[in-house]
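Trying the structure run again after the queue cleared.
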Amino acid sequence: MLLLATAISLGPYQLAPGDLLAFLIAKATGAASPLSAPAEAVVLRIRLPRVFAATAVGAALASSGAAYQSLFRNPLVSPDILGVSAGAAFGAVVGIFLSLPVLAIEVAAFVGGIAAVTIVYGIATAIRGRDAALILVLAGVVIGALFGAGVGLLKYLADPCNQLPAITFWLLGSLAAANLRDLTSLLPAVAIGLMLLALLRWRIDVMTLGDEEAAALGVNTRLLRVVVIAAATLMTSAAVAASGIIGWVGLVVPHLARLLIGAAFTRLLPVSVLFGAGYLLAVDTVARTLGTVELPLGVLTAVIGTPVFLWLLAFSRRAAWS
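Done. C-alpha cells:
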C-alpha cells in the first residue's frame, strides 16, 4: 500500500500524501473531492491507470516466468524462452508499420505471441525421440531469433520520420501511454492466466519431479504442458501488447522468490505475483521521476537484471532446482 501511494503521489505534478488519502476517502464515501480539477484528472486519468498497468504487467511477467521455470525445471528460463516476446514484438511492429490504430496494434501483438508459441510447440511435437523440454527450449530460441530478424527488417523498411521512432520507442518498453482502455484488455488476460495457473498449481509441482514420475502419479503431462504454456503465453502477450518489451522481470523475480520460499509452485506463484507487481511498479516510478526525461522501462530492467543474471551464472549450482 505504501508503494502504491508513493507511485500515485510522485511525478511532475506531485501530490501530498494527506491530500491523496483524503481524495481516496472522499471517492469511497461519495463526499466532495478535496483536490482541484487538474489534480483529480492527473490521479484518475494518468496515475491510477499507469499504476494498475504496472502491477498487472509485473505480475503477469513474473508469474509466467515462475510457470516456465517450474515446467522446465530450470530456474534460468524466462517468459520469452518460447519466443513469445519476440513474436508479440513482431506483431506490434507490423501494426505500427502498417499505421494501424492502437487497438489493432495490441491485437497484432497478441496474435504474434500466440503464433510464435504455436510454431514452437508444433516443432517440438514433430521432433520425437529426444528430450521434449530441451527441444521446446531450443525451438523457442530459434523462432525468437527469426521473429527478431523480422523486426529488424521492418525497422530497416520503416519511414525514418514517423514509423521508425514509434517502433523504437515501443520496443524499449514503456507505460507512459497506459490508459483505461488498455486495462480492459490487459486485466482480463492476466486474470484468466493467473486463475489457470492457480488451479493447476499442485499438478505443476508434480511436474517438477519429471515427466515419467508425473505420469505415474496420474498427471496428463502433455495436456498440462499445453495448458500451462497457453496461460503463460496469454499473460506475456497481453503484457507485451500493453507495455512493449520489458525483459528480465520473468527471470529475476521468480528466482529471488524461490530463494526466499523454496521451489514449491504452490508458494512460488503468489509470492512471484506480489514481487513482480511491486518490482515493476517501483521501477516504473523511478523511470518517470528520476530525471526530467522519462527513462525506458526496458533499459532500467536490463540494468538491474544483468548483474543479477551474472550472479546466477556464477552461483548456478547453488541456484539449481531443488
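Residues 318-322 have pLDDT under 50 and may be disordered. Worth checking whether this holds up in the mutant runs.
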